[in-house]
Design a protein that fits this description.
Elements: H1 7-11, H2 29-37, E1 40-47, E2 52-57, E3 62-67, E4 74-80, E5 83-87, H3 90-97, E6 106-108, E7 116-123, E8 136-139, H4 147-154, H5 162-174, H6 178-182, E9 189-197, E10 204-207, E11 216-221, E12 225-231, E13 251-257
Antiparallel strand pairs: 1-13, 2-12, 3-11, 3-13, 4-5, 4-9, 4-12, 6-7, 7-11, 8-9, 9-10
Length: about 280
């Protein structure tokens, strides 16, 4: 198709950030980090390779995900521990903070709740930024590897994709039937994963994560949380991800609790009146 005469002018129009977060209350990272350093560890969960596990975090507490034994990425779901319908909203998190999240960013819940569920307060991979391929760490652009896409593209049945791992773990934790638990599993925060979009075709890509044993990311829980984490079958996601081909390692989740940072309070539900013009 032939481009119009003003094609270059149209492409040159300056972009506008859709949801600038400048009006959000600032996060005092130093205060948050100092407070959490004094927290006690009240629990831990070791997520086995190619499997998922659930954990609970009280409001005002914290949780830390750490790479152990070898490079490994994880897929994280978050729920209001008292109401599974309030869950993580990766799309709005992406719209507000960008394709990849870092210290100071929030993980937001779905409509109509739309409030910060958790706040990233520390990230040992924060140095990475964006590489020459456009790759960054901790993305909210991918969905989660799942057996349905695998079946569609390869014709194979693989039962240890992150979607299935999250489904089993949520069912085990809540007592819900597997089919019902699956309907609550949602798009994830890809913890430690290095991803981006190709420059020429705009396709989602992954590359080997720079995560190493001891690297971690820490979150402050703004509400009572039920977390579910899958140790992805892709390992460091430098190659295959919906198979047993990659070397995989466990992920450690530590749950911490103590006196919340000064000025912190549990966020209220979104104040929109839900009248929708009626």
């Amino acid at each position: 198709m032939q481009a119009p005469k003003d094609a270059d002018a149209r492409r040159a129009i300056k972009p506008v950030v859709v949801y600038p977060p400048d009006t959000l209350p600032p996060v005092n990272l130093h205060a948050y980090q100092t407070a959490v350093e004094a927290y006690d560890r009240i629990g831990e969960v070791l997520v086995p390779p190619r499997d998922g596990r659930a954990f609970h975090v009280p409001a005002g507490g914290a949780f830390r995900i750490t790479s152990v034994e070898g490079p490994q990425v994880g897929d994280l779901n978050l729920f209001n521990a008292n109401d599974l319908t309030e869950r993580f909203f990766s799309g709005k998190t992406r719209a507000i903070h960008g394709t990849h999240v870092n210290a100071g960013d929030h993980l937001w819940s779905v409509l109509p709740y739309l409030r910060p569920m958790a706040t990233i307060i520390d990230d040992t991979l924060g140095w990475y930024g964006f590489d020459t391929f456009g790759g960054g760490i901790h993305d909210v652009i991918g969905t989660r590897c799942d057996p349905y896409t695998g079946k569609l593209l390869s014709g194979d049945d693989y039962h240890y994709c992150c979607h299935s791992n999250l489904t089993r773990a949520l069912a085990d934790e809540t007592g819900l039937p597997l089919a019902e638990a699956e309907m609550h599993v949602h798009d994830v925060l890809n913890v430690f994963m290095c991803t981006g979009f190709t420059r020429d075709t705009g396709q989602y890509f992954m590359k080997a994560s720079p995560v190493r044993p001891g690297d971690h990311i820490t979150f402050l829980a703004n509400i009572d949380l039920l977390g579910v984490l899958s140790a992805c079958p892709g390992g460091d996601c430098g190659g295959e991800h919906s198979s047993d081909a990659a070397a995989c390692h466990p992920l450690l989740v530590e749950v911490l609790d103590g006196t919340p940072p000064a000025g912190w309070s549990e966020p209220a539900l979104n104040a929109y009146d839900r009248s929708h013009g009626r």
